[in-house]
Amino acid sequence: MTAGALPGQLQADPDALPPRIRLMAYGPERLEDREVASVAELDRLPEGLPVAWIDVVGLGDVDVLAALGRRFGIHRLLLEDVTRTHQRPKVEDFPGCVAVLLREPGLEVGGRDRQVSLFFGEGWLLSFRESQGEAFEPVRARIRQAGRLIRSSGADYLAYALIDAVVDRYLPPLEALGERMESLQERILLDPQPDMLAELFETRQTLAAMRRSAWPMRELLNRLIRDPLPGIEDETRIHLRDCYDHAVLVLELLEGHRESCGELMDFYLSSVSHRANEIMKVLTITGAIFIPLTFVAGIYGMNFDPERSPYNMPELRWAYGYPVAIVIMLGIAVGMLIFFRRKGWLR
Amino acid sequence: MTAGALPGQLQADPDALPPRIRLMAYGPERLEDREVASVAELDRLPEGLPVAWIDVVGLGDVDVLAALGRRFGIHRLLLEDVTRTHQRPKVEDFPGCVAVLLREPGLEVGGRDRQVSLFFGEGWLLSFRESQGEAFEPVRARIRQAGRLIRSSGADYLAYALIDAVVDRYLPPLEALGERMESLQERILLDPQPDMLAELFETRQTLAAMRRSAWPMRELLNRLIRDPLPGIEDETRIHLRDCYDHAVLVLELLEGHRESCGELMDFYLSSVSHRANEIMKVLTITGAIFIPLTFVAGIYGMNFDPERSPYNMPELRWAYGYPVAIVIMLGIAVGMLIFFRRKGWLR
Amino acid sequence: MTAGALPGQLQADPDALPPRIRLMAYGPERLEDREVASVAELDRLPEGLPVAWIDVVGLGDVDVLAALGRRFGIHRLLLEDVTRTHQRPKVEDFPGCVAVLLREPGLEVGGRDRQVSLFFGEGWLLSFRESQGEAFEPVRARIRQAGRLIRSSGADYLAYALIDAVVDRYLPPLEALGERMESLQERILLDPQPDMLAELFETRQTLAAMRRSAWPMRELLNRLIRDPLPGIEDETRIHLRDCYDHAVLVLELLEGHRESCGELMDFYLSSVSHRANEIMKVLTITGAIFIPLTFVAGIYGMNFDPERSPYNMPELRWAYGYPVAIVIMLGIAVGMLIFFRRKGWLR
Amino acid sequence: MTAGALPGQLQADPDALPPRIRLMAYGPERLEDREVASVAELDRLPEGLPVAWIDVVGLGDVDVLAALGRRFGIHRLLLEDVTRTHQRPKVEDFPGCVAVLLREPGLEVGGRDRQVSLFFGEGWLLSFRESQGEAFEPVRARIRQAGRLIRSSGADYLAYALIDAVVDRYLPPLEALGERMESLQERILLDPQPDMLAELFETRQTLAAMRRSAWPMRELLNRLIRDPLPGIEDETRIHLRDCYDHAVLVLELLEGHRESCGELMDFYLSSVSHRANEIMKVLTITGAIFIPLTFVAGIYGMNFDPERSPYNMPELRWAYGYPVAIVIMLGIAVGMLIFFRRKGWLR
Amino acid sequence: MTAGALPGQLQADPDALPPRIRLMAYGPERLEDREVASVAELDRLPEGLPVAWIDVVGLGDVDVLAALGRRFGIHRLLLEDVTRTHQRPKVEDFPGCVAVLLREPGLEVGGRDRQVSLFFGEGWLLSFRESQGEAFEPVRARIRQAGRLIRSSGADYLAYALIDAVVDRYLPPLEALGERMESLQERILLDPQPDMLAELFETRQTLAAMRRSAWPMRELLNRLIRDPLPGIEDETRIHLRDCYDHAVLVLELLEGHRESCGELMDFYLSSVSHRANEIMKVLTITGAIFIPLTFVAGIYGMNFDPERSPYNMPELRWAYGYPVAIVIMLGIAVGMLIFFRRKGWLR
């Protein structure tokens, strides 16, 4: 939402798609499913079919939204919420109408989530979506099968089925993130690299975004179950309780993933520290052995003149000078190796 | 607030601006908008205009405040709160008057936030600001357009519109901070430097300050919605609920940014550690290869006298002494390189 | 649960075992304990025995579940919950029937937990398990002993006994994890290795999974104690209160272990850092002593020609040149050692 | 409090000062302010003065306390709380008397906080302090000014004024701590030293101690405002609400400071890590350039005898041997420098 | 508790001591204090003494516990709780009897805590302890003094006195832990060693254990104060409120210590990092000065033959070759020192 946008003023996002309206009206025996060209067609809903589901995909035409709002008696502020597609999930009740705003996560990791708005009353349900998604397909499939519970239930049950479909959409990306983190863990243990860090960071932010849209859904379902909202039957409440359990499961998975993310960060840091030690050990072992040896060799590379004085490097002229020097060097090297083995630095 | 300042005593901040008063009185048909020279002018509000908005910019004259307080029946303690511009946002209700204290964030990052005080009752709204800001302009613009909802609503709706304008002012600096953190992340990944740390630290503190002023607003809006405050109509409460949703969104963004800040700190530390490893690897590889080689060269730089004994460095006089030494050195170097490649240290 | 699975549709997991049904009916005096071949046998429960416990192991046959559901009047959604074995523990009450879903932890560390579903009403209890476990054995043993309290109590007491048995199953794996962490701590202090990190990580995730299934049990027991559920007698509530205390104990142990896990992570990092210092100290001490000495030796290894000028390395021809050089070197080495001892780096 | 101290037994701390009692009785017109030598003098409070404030400084004489307790009907347990000067702030109400225990922070950082106990009823207020502090002076000053609100209010307003004075005492040390942390941040960025760490640690503990005494004050003020305590008038409650806002502000500052402290710790760690990299870079650059060069020089310092074989270091006798060696060395050095510049290690 | 232990079955821990029973019956005038050989002696409590305190030390004989349970009408589940000495503190009320389970901390750091079970009703109090401790001694001493409040109060006051004695037992080990942490801090600042880390780890776990037993006590005291439990008089509730304040103080100290523990961990890590820098600085300074110098010396140690060509190291034959080389070396060393001083690495 832009700061300063005027409340009470419907404004379409310039990038929004033009709306396509589809009507699905059904009862236990009969089913009507067709595209609707203009809102005027909806003035009279099909007779003899207890539930009419008007599904609007694309929010690009403010007039269509306004006409639908007038037709079904939806408060202007709620219509604005439909067009401003960054709303927090919530439920609002008005006389004769319950409004539910949800967010459907993108299926691929890091994908943008989309707002889904549901309005329902006695015998009708109006849904608004930014773009055609997959979430509602299973519900449509169920409606098409005669004899299913949904065919003999009311608009409140349809609302439940759609909400449940949206909640279940959270599971595939969560599973994908879980696998991604497992693979990250293995790769970090093998060889920690900064691009893994960036990947971890991105995963964290995806999880934070999913959490922001998933948390309010729990609260929302709770309200649908507990509050005496009009038009929600007891049987539907039982199903919503089940849906609530799914939402809680989604949140617990989310929180679990978030914790794992934090732990992977620690894991990365620890792995990097461990590798630093490995590197330093090699330098230290090489250095601590050869630097003293080089010094010994340096001593006998000095040019003090043994001719001038018996004190000037008489070793150079000893018969066994060289072998003794070599033995001294070997002694130093072996001593160092024993010291390092004691320290446990040589594996 | 200075410790020991006497409650019940109005004191102007010496740096405060002199007050300028502007009266905007309106009804569905008519609008009056003018500067007011003295409080006495307000003894009789324009007739036939249902809402009078008195906007005071500058808190430098205690007498003006006191006169306004007397005129509209505002408790002395609240007037003090107006002059002490570090109050926590809150709502207080008195008979015939509701007081709302808010904080408007600075638009630029790190900018000082300013206190906005609103008092409203039947047909009037009194606002106090430290200095002329931009926040109220869109509301004024709306009032000037005849036919807008605000023109036919009461002072409670005006209060809502102003609160909503202040809440929406939080979004631009939050967006700026978000972009700043994204750029920080990229720069840290490239080359972590302590000035980024300082920038991160400053960002954290800006967020903490914004949070301190934004949190109470949620609670405040909650009270305005739920409590049976006088003079707030049901229609306005619906709008306030929408405003409450915005405030929650602001808070969620704030919390998300705060978390990202903490993660960037980890990110910085991890990047620094990774670079430390890179640096150390170069030293280790150079050292571990050349230190042993230098030792070998040092050996044959010793001056043991081969004349004196056949044990003293006979290699020096061998025909292939030098080539053999070179081959030994190459062998050591190649061995080390293989070792490092196995460790995965050479890319 | 697969996204898009149709609610209200019973589907068996293809890997689920075929169900085996066992009936244990008992009263203070008599006990009947036998396998049941078909659900039809259960149409009439043994007469004169106040409690009938039907234990179903294996969830592979949807028809059997459906038949049991019809026989005991269990809501379809709950039967689905039985077949989808990743439910969150919960309690649901329906007229004439209380449903309790629990999770029994695997006994070995990292073992998969299994869902246990209990349904009970006046005089009967129906339990569903994925596979034969050990948890229910102690309860069966108690039932077989005549004169035990359980023999003269109702189905609600049996439900309590089974819940208590499941809650107590959490203690052995928690104890095993506790010992594992103690051993980890010792091994980390001795020599921190990345496989310990991976072990720690795995332990954390086992704990997180246990916690996800243990937390809801507390809430569930609370509901069983406080809510006026049908068929739970006051005496049983007293026992459930005791069971609630056990669940709280389990949760406190879990939280304690989780905290210890986090502390072990810090411990690992600190140990690695400490070892890094130890390694670096050895390199620094060796380097800082021998690098200057090698330089001194290098000086007198230079080939400036003393014949050409009295300024060219006259030391080489001094009578005491070599001893003086050795003394200088010793002085440098001793100075360094004193410096390091002052720093506290030599133990 | 010593473990095993007997409740119900008044015991003076041996280090406590002897009590000095001061009576300040006032009404709108008249004021009496004098030292009181013995408790007996207080048997009859000055007539015609609606409020009598008895301020006791020094808790060294149990008999005086007991006599005052008897005189004003204070429960023994509360008198004990007065003498044991490490109580948690709290409010307790008894018939005819409200007791408020507060803690006044030391003004200098790390200073000890002192307990302030207030008891008030109809027309009287009794205050106990460990030692003469500055907190009550502004209130006394206000009382001395005729015409001030306090002069025409009751003992409950006096209690409010004193509580408010104590709450405001938290601001100066918080401000000092804030400045201290800012200076710490700058010094850490410049050159992180362990004494800063110790200072940070001390700051954290001061904040933790302040928090322990400030948190209960909020709860305490809440009770004073909401509970129907005897003798607190509605007007005073309005003032207490203001005081409550100050307490919340103090707590928010405290929490903000605590968070900053944690962030400074991270800041320190990051700065130290960064400096470690800087140090290592210098070593790595120097080492990686000169170690290979020294090796090359070492090669041509070997003493293989060119006389014996044409393979033995023929370079030594080449006309351009030396310049070529120098060029090779320069090549290595320049190559390394280019490598380091690419890595971005040379600024 | 062993998984699978049968509820409702009293089982003594095989290591438990045999019970010793002591009866202390008292009233304002008279006191009886003696060992009791068998439970049968307690069938008739001493007449004319309003309070009878039966203190049982040692839980090794199930029959004695069962007999006492029958004598005083204690529920079997509670008797089990007495024998299973790892219960969470709790309060349970039954008709005519209140049960309080507490945990008394070990006085030495890391010492095992012991369960204390109190049951009281009209005129009697039954206490069970695992072994003779010191906690109850001050209460006995008070009872022995005629004229003390406890002598003229009921069993509820005795219960309060014992609970208060247990709560106060938490203070000495907390004080000891506080001092231990202070000493740790100093030692870490001086020279961080891994044994300090292990000590810190152990301290954390001791605190976690204390917390697990202290937290429920607060809740327990709250219930004793607020719930309308039978036989607790208003005067006793006032004392329990005081005891509640002590429990809160204990918890605040515990939380404070826990936070300090976490901070000490950070402190350790930071100190280790700082020392790493110190160590590395010494290596870097030594290396960066002497490695280039050694190279220069190495140059003039090369054996290029100046006889063969005027380009081969003519410096060696210059009159001032050696002094110039020394000056170059000095120049390099001084340059490096200036660089290090600028970096602030030489103090």
Identify the overall geometry of chain A: rod-shaped
Calculate the mean pLDDT score of chain A and round it: 87
Q: Largest interface, counted with CB-CB under 8 A?
A: A-B, 62 and 61 residues
Tally of extended strands of chain A?
7
The structural domain count of chain A equals: 2
How is this structure best described in words?
5 copies of one chain form a homopentamer. In chain A, 53% of the residues lie in helices and 14% in strands. Chain A has 347 residues and is α+β, with helices and mostly antiparallel strands. Chain A folds into 2 domains: 251 residues, CorA soluble domain-like (Beta Polymerase, domain 2); 72 residues, Up-down Bundle (Methane Monooxygenase Hydroxylase, Chain G, domain 1). In chain A, α4 runs parallel beside α7 and α7 packs antiparallel against α8. Chains in contact: A-B, A-C, B-D, C-E, D-E. At the A-B interface, α6, α7 and α8 of A face α3, α4, α5 and α7 of B.
Which secondary structure elements does this structure contain, and how are they paired or packed?
Five copies of one chain form a homopentamer.
Chain A: E1 20-26, E2 31-36, E3 51-57, H1 62-72, H2 76-83, E4 90-94, E5 97-104, E6 114-121, E7 124-129, H3 137-144, H4 155-168, H5 171-190, H6 194-226, H7 234-299, H8 321-343
Parallel strand pairs in A: 3-7
Antiparallel strand pairs in A: 1-2, 1-3, 4-5, 5-6, 6-7
Helix pairs in contact in A: 4-7, 5-6, 5-7, 6-7, 7-8
Supply database-style keywords.
347 residues; 7-stranded mixed β-sheet; 2 domains; 53% helix; 8 helices; homopentamer; rod-shaped; Methane Monooxygenase Hydroxylase, Chain G, domain 1; alpha+beta; 7 strands; Beta Polymerase, domain 2
